[in-house]
Design brief:
With 401 residues, the chain is α/β, with parallel strands linked by helices. The protein has two domains: 195 residues, FAD/NAD(P)-binding domain; 129 residues, FAD/NAD(P)-binding domain. The protein is built from nine helices and 23 strands. The strands form seven sheets. Strands 7-6-5-2-1-8-19 form a seven-stranded mixed beta sheet. The chain has a four-stranded parallel beta sheet with strand order 12-11-10-16. β22 and β23 form a beta hairpin. α1 runs parallel beside α7 and α5 packs parallel to α6. The chain starts with a strand and ends in a 9-residue tail after the last helix. The relative contact order is 0.17.
Amino acid sequence: MAKRILIIGAGFAGMWSALGAARLIDLHGQKDVEIALIAPQPELHVRPRFYEAGAARMKAPLRDIFDAVGVRFIQGTVERIHADRNEVEVVGIDQARSTLSYDRLVLATGSRLFRPQIPGLDKHAFSVDQIDEAAELEAHIKRLADHPASAARNTIVVAGGGFTGIETAAEMPARLRDALGEDAEVNVIVVDRHAEVAAELGAGPRPVITQALEALGVTWRPGTSVASVDENGLTTAHGERIDAKTVIWTAGVRASALTQQIPAQRDAFGRLHVDSNLRVKGVDAVFATGDVAYAATDDDGNYAAMSCQHAMNLGRSAGHNVAADLLGLAPIPYRQPRYVTCLDLGPWGAVYTEGWEREVKLVGADAKALKGRINAEWIYPPSADRAQALAAANPDRTVVA
C-alpha cells in the first residue's frame, strides 16, 4: 500500500514543501509514496506584494507544476487535525466532508493578521493581509473620488509601523493622488505603539526610512495606540481623534489556528516548536514549516521570521526532510544563517540591509531595482518543467526576499 505525505497549505512554504518532497522521492525512484496537498485553491497568493496596487492579480497558478512533479492537489479546507490517529477532516469546495489519513503531515498553513478586540476594528478597518482584503482596499480608494472633498476623505491612517505598515504607508500618497487627482492635498499617517519610528526594524535602516517617509509626506505618530475605529476615522488611546475615511490595520500576525490542534509547545505567535529537521517536537509524524514553525536559523540564537524569505527555504527543507523520514534517509537540518531585508519605500526607492542587525547596504533607486526583482521574479513559482521545478526545490538553495 502506498504511503502518503500530506501537506496542508499552498503558500510559499506549502508549495516548496511539495516540490522538496517530490525532488527527493524522484531522486530515489520511489513509486509507492503519494504526495498530496490540500488548499482552497491551486494557486500561490503572492502575499508580500499585497501592499501594491493591483493586488487581485498577485497570484500564480500551481496545478500545472504539481501535475508535472506528481503532486496530487486536493481542493478543500482542513477543519480538524487528529494527530493521535494520523487523520485530518476535510471540507471540499462542494461542502462535502471527508477524512483523509497520512503517514507524515506537513503543516504549512501560514499566518493571519492579528486583529485585537478593538471596537469597530473588524467592521471599519481595511488590511493588505489577504488577497481579497487588499483588493477591497484598492476598490475603496478608487471610490473615494465619489465622496465630497474633505480632510477625512483625503486622509489614510496606517495602524502599525512594522515592515508591512511602512511598505503600505509609502505607497499610499501616490495611490491616493491617483484616485483624487495629482493636485489633491493628501495626508498619510502612521500610528504605532512603539516610541521610535520603525522600532521593529532597528536603528540601522531608521534614518533611511525616516528620510523616505518625510520626502513622501508620510507622518508618524509614535507611542500611539488605537482605542476605536469607525467609518469616519479613529480615536487613539490618548483620546485624540483622527478623521479618516481609510484606516488600514497592519499591526502584527499570528500563526494559523490549526497549530492549536497539534499537542505541542507553541511560541507567543502560535508557532510550533520544531527541531532542526522541522519535525514538531514530541509529535513524530508531524512537520511544521513557514509561518507556523518556530525554527532556529543558525546556532547563534536567531529564529526564522514570519516572512516569505524564510518560508521558501523552510518549505524546501520540510519537504526534503519529511520525505527522508518516510524513506529512512538522512535528513538535511534546516539552516538559513544569511538574513537580509529589502524594504519598499514607494516612489522614493527602497532600503536593503544584511544581517540581523540590519546593516544598510543599498538605498534609493539601487535598492528599489533589487526589490523589483525580488517581487516580480524571485519569489514566484518555478516553471512547470519537471526537471527545472525539482532542481529549484533543492534545500541547499538560498533565497533572498
